[in-house]
Design a protein that fits this description.
This protein has about 140 residues and is mainly β. It is built from 1 helix and 10 strands. Strands 2, 4, 5, 6, 8, 9 and 10 form a 7-stranded mixed β-sheet that branches.
Length: about 140
């Protein structure tokens, strides 16, 4: 029970501190830049302003969770739930970072923020697409 209470306190804290007083909504990569060379496993930290982070299934106003799009040519249909595939990675527990094991090569990465049902918000919130190079 104590773990559950601590979990919800953490979610509420993250949600409250995720709001931007200027009202700008933005999702971005905190630690990666376009063209960056990295080594695997790749640590990816998700940035968010103007909305709060909450796990999938939690109906909290102006919140949602991250989805990482890997090597996609175009964004998914914004009127439907974001698919679950190796190229559409869901962070439905409200995670704000991950470690990805990637083979050497080039990858495109893009963040897409989804609501409690994995559907992009009415005004979709997505990052710029970046390309990273994973070295051996």
């Amino acid at each position: 029970m104590k773990k559950l209470i601590n979990y919800f306190i953490g979610v509420i804290a993250i949600t409250l501190f995720s709001f931007n007083l200027l009202g700008e909504e933005k999702v971005y990569f905190v630690n990666l830049e376009d063209g960056q060379k990295v080594k695997s496993p790749v640590k990816i930290i998700f940035g968010l302003t103007g909305k709060g982070v909450a796990p999938a299934g939690i109906n909290y106003p102006n919140s949602g969770h991250h989805h990482l799009l890997v090597n996609l040519d175009k964004l998914p249909d914004f009127t439907k739930a974001i698919p679950t595939t190796p190229n559409h990675i869901h962070f439905g527990r409200g995670q704000t970072e991950t470690l990805l094991n990637l083979e050497a090569g080039s990858y495109t990465l893009q963040l897409l923020f989804g609501d409690m049902m994995h559907i992009p918000h009415k005004t979709p919130l997505y990052s710029e697409k970046i390309k990273i190079y994973v070295e051996k």
